[in-house]
């Protein structure tokens, strides 16, 4: 098949593996920016989500904002951020900042909403029992609620990760590097091998992220709960 | 910072691109809805079919949009089909979940009462269950519309003939012209909000006995695509 052979040819051409526009460097750019962004999004959204879930304070506002964030078109977010970031740094602004800011903004909602719902859905009787046993609020959150909600919390980070990987590809439209370059340049240059090479690379990265987090979700269920789940497999 | 002269002189272009944006989104939503409705009906009748259908639609939703557009270009070329297939695919998970949730929300005693009154299963579906499922179906339509309107901007990667209001984001970037980028971004968000508002009104008008409910996946937060 033409498509397959063009893709294979692209992957096997040594020129595609060299220099700043080579596969290793683009892959590194993509993964590095996504990892940093995911880290920032987690640092912002997780504490806020946990706090809201535990105290129930400001939950409507947070969920409303998060839903709004989810509804806003990705490309438009970058478009809105781009002109302002050029004010900060004309040379860099157009390339890095809009992409990173958009990625952080779009990574926050799933983490925040899942952290809130995960904690919120923990059985209140368990929380009361912990309180009765003399646990302090912080202990209740960290030793009762978080372990119980962990798969849901990871689920939020998992969807944020996919969202961020996808948004990073869109960054290529604004001159950002990463794997999106192969997609945007491939289409523009009508280069089938490069386009599909990019498709394979991004799809592989998404699949990897999904797998890693899915495994983490399963592994990080606390032992007591896993025994319970094995006893009653009908749920979920 | 804004070039007001450029903005006022391009009102006509904004209108043309808005029409294109609505046109591209409407095709995707209409075709997407028809396919999802058939799949959802199937899933409602044969419960076993639901998990694989919803699961597959969810997996499709995790594919980054630019990847899906790019993947199709070598196959279907720079064409309307290349623009619409991803739009249709991304609506599936939203529509299917909400349509199934809509039918599930129909009270069992109402269905029984209809059966007792001699409605055939078909009449029951169209005249009892469907009207009662409308609020959740419209809730799904709202989410799908906002999402599809956002995705239409990305069809701008396929060139000047596509993109709707997203065209201005692409052209503005290539000309390093902030005003144009902002115009494209703000107008496409405004279009999404306007359509959402109209759908809320439409739902009040269609089902005056209800208030608009939250979409089925409002708090679920499982998948997200861009």
Keywords:
heterodimer; A: 236 residues; mainly alpha; MetI-like fold; 10 helices; 79% helix; B: 226 residues; 9 helices; 76% helix; disordered C terminus
Question: Which helices and strands occur, and which strands form pairs?
Answer:
The complex is a heterodimer of chains A (236) and B (226).
Chain A: H1 2-12, H2 23-55, H3 59-71, H4 74-88, H5 97-120, H6 124-132, H7 137-171, H8 180-188, H9 192-219, H10 223-231
Helix pairs in contact in A: 1-9, 2-5, 2-7, 3-5, 4-5, 5-7, 6-7, 7-9, 8-9
Chain B: H1 4-9, H2 11-45, H3 50-62, H4 65-76, H5 80-104, H6 108-116, H7 121-154, H8 166-174, H9 178-206
Helix pairs in contact in B: 2-5, 2-7, 3-5, 4-5, 5-7, 6-7, 7-9, 8-9
Summarize the structure.
By secondary structure, chain A is mainly α.
Describe the structure.
The complex is a heterodimer of chains A (236) and B (226). Chain A is mainly alpha-helical and 236 residues long. Chain A has one domain: MetI-like (MetI-like fold), CATH 1.10.3720.10. Chain A is built from ten helices and no strands. Chain B is mainly α and 226 residues long. Chain B has a single domain (14-206), classed as Orthogonal Bundle (MetI-like fold). In chain B, helix 2 packs across helix 5 (80-104). Chain B starts with a helix and ends in a 20-residue tail after the last helix. The interface between A and B is large, with 54 and 49 residues.
């Amino acid at each position: 098949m033409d498509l397959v052979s063009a893709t294979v040819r692209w992957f096997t051409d040594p020129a595609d593996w060299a220099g700043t526009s080579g596969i290793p460097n683009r892959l590194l750019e993509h993964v590095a920016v996504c990892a940093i962004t995911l880290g920032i999004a987690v640092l912002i959204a997780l504490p806020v989500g946990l706090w809201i879930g535990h105290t129930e304070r400001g939950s409507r506002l947070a969920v409303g904002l998060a839903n709004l964030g989810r509804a806003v078109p990705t490309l438009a977010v970058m478009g809105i951020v781009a002109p302002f970031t050029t004010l900060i740094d004309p040379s860099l602004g157009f390339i890095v900042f809009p992409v990173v800011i958009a990625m952080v903004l779009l990574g926050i909602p799933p983490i925040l909403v899942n952290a809130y719902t995960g904690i919120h859905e923990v059985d209140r009787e368990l929380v009361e029992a912990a309180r009765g046993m003399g646990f302090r609020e912080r202990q209740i959150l960290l030793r009762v609620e978080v372990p119980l909600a962990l798969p849901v919390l990871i689920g939020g980070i998992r969807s944020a990760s996919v969202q961020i990987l996808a948004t990073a590809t869109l960054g290529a439209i604004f001159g950002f590097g990463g794997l999106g370059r192969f997609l945007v340049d491939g289409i523009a240059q009508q280069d089938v091998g490069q386009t599909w090479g990019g498709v394979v690379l991004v799809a592989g990265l998404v699949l990897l992220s999904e797998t890693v987090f899915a495994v983490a979700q399963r592994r990080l269920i606390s032992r007591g709960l896993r025994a319970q789940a094995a006893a009653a497999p009908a749920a979920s | 910072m804004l070039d007001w002269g450029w903005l006022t002189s391009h009102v006509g272009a904004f209108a043309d691109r808005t029409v294109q944006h609505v046109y591209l989104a409407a095709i995707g939503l209409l075709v997407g809805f028809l396919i999802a409705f058939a799949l959802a009906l199937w899933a409602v009748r044969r419960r076993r079919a639901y998990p694989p259908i919803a699961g597959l639609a969810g997996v499709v939703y995790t594919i980054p949009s630019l990847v899906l557009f790019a993947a199709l270009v070598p196959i279907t070329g720079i064409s309307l089909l290349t623009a619409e297939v991803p739009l249709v695919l991304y609506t599936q998970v939203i529509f299917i979940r909400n349509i199934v949730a809509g039918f599930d929300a129909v009270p069992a005693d109402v269905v029984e009462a209809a059966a007792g009154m001699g409605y055939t299963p078909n009449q029951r579906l169209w005249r009892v269950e469907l009207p009662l499922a409308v609020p959740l179906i419209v809730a799904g339509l709202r989410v799908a519309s906002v999402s599809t309107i956002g995705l239409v901007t990305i069809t701008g990667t396929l060139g000047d003939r596509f993109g709707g209001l997203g065209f201005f984001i692409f052209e503005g970037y290539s000309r390093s012209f902030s005003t144009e980028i902002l115009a494209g971004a703000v107008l496409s968000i405004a279009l999404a909000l306007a359509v959402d508002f109209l759908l809320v009104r439409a739902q009040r008008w269609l089902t005056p006995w209800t208030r608009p409910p939250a979409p089925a996946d409002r708090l679920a937060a499982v998948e997200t695509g861009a």
